[in-house]
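Quarterly update from the structural biology core.
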Amino acid sequence: MPIAAQEEERELLQIQDFRKGYIYFLSSLQNLSGAFLQFLTSGNISEANKRDLLPLRKLLDSELNKTQKKIKDIIINLDEKHLYPYMKKEYNRYFPAGLADDHRNEFVQFHLIFEMLRNFYIESMQSWDEIKKSIESANFHENEFRNEALLGFRVVPALGRLLSLSFLLKRMAYILQIEKPESIWEPKATKPKFKENVIYRLSTVFSENLYQTEFQEEMTHSPFTEEPPETGQTTSQETKPQEVVEHKKTVPRKETIINYIQAYGKYSWNSDQHYFFRFETDKYMEEKDYFKQTISMDLHMGADEQILRSELIRSLTSVERKSKSAEELEKDYLSFLDHFFNFCENIIMMNINIPAQLKWVFLFHIGPSHFYMIAKKFLTEVNTGFLHIRSVDGKKVSRVIPTEVVKKHVIDYWNRAVLPNVGEEKNNIVILKKLSEVVENCYKDVSTHAIKCYEDLPPEVKASKPRVQLFREHMNQWMGAANIIVFKRFVKNKSF
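Predicted structure, tokenized:
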């Protein structure tokens, strides 16, 4: 086996944990550092070893806590609610003259993740090297404690995790065609190159023979075009944007679908993750195709399920395919969603006692993400909104709610109805606090009701399970599933 092939096989073995995602890997490293901290304060260390550790404790506690914080921060930043808005914000820095599309979005996101992980690696290596050196240079009466309990069981595994991360970064750097790849271990921003024929996803990192892949140089675009070229050429800044536009004329692109909404206000308290929402474009396109296979749709507005068992009522509350096209069925479904969203609004307003004149500002602050959760909860609770889809071979019928279609319609509804109808009151924190006060009062009343429901349970039921478990099992019934979502938004997740 050639040396290059052996080296690549070693890399692929080292990065296997990343197949489960970045978060899985980072969590495992977080567990290592957390376990190390717990070990230092546990009762499993002898008094003699505690005395030997004493001069190191300040450094160990500081570096391990620092590692924990870094991992926590990067996990938060890798969350979709934070990463996607950050990518959209940074997009123009990469492509100042290019139109956004999914491929370029993935490129920007891939490089931003690379930079997060790279900076994390550089800082973490410094911390763990410092920990390792301090332990190795300290005086311990028991070498076994130092070599096994500290280094062997805790420091070496963490360094092994970071070694795996270095292999991942090396492969990501190759995919991004980073200039001067040897410099990725230095704390200096990297410059990637965008290429039309490269898939910028984590799955590409696991490609065999990655380093033998030939990328099409004629389809390369270097981002950061606002910076002057490093060579002595006199190319003006206007040249590259023109080249990008010309290139886009020769390469047909798919129609771009805007798959997110930033329903922000003017301030930080009405511009956080609660006002951001998105759907998965690929899954949405797959679900649109469901309408080609749909034989019927459940589109009732919450009638009693006992009544719905009647074939007569079923025929009235289900839209049958008959001669309808996929486009007509989709139109019927979206029309149903409009009516159902109104139904959800009215139920929430009535349950929480929101004044009618505050409807739009209330919806604005609920946010599209929580509104989707409410709509989805109502759909499943009243057993509606399902498509009956026949399999390609015609032997099976599945019953599904097309969730990405629903998500997109929430975004469309927000753009069409909510945002145009809410004015400057969305930026009035006094109104938001008043709404939160109304919701909180309702929360107190409903909580009192839930406690009473628990107290009214037969003694044998209360004795059968812990109180917490019984509340968890009956919470949706006692408090209302949709109400709970509103309570979590306004009472538990205040953003002001």
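The radius of gyration is 28 Å.
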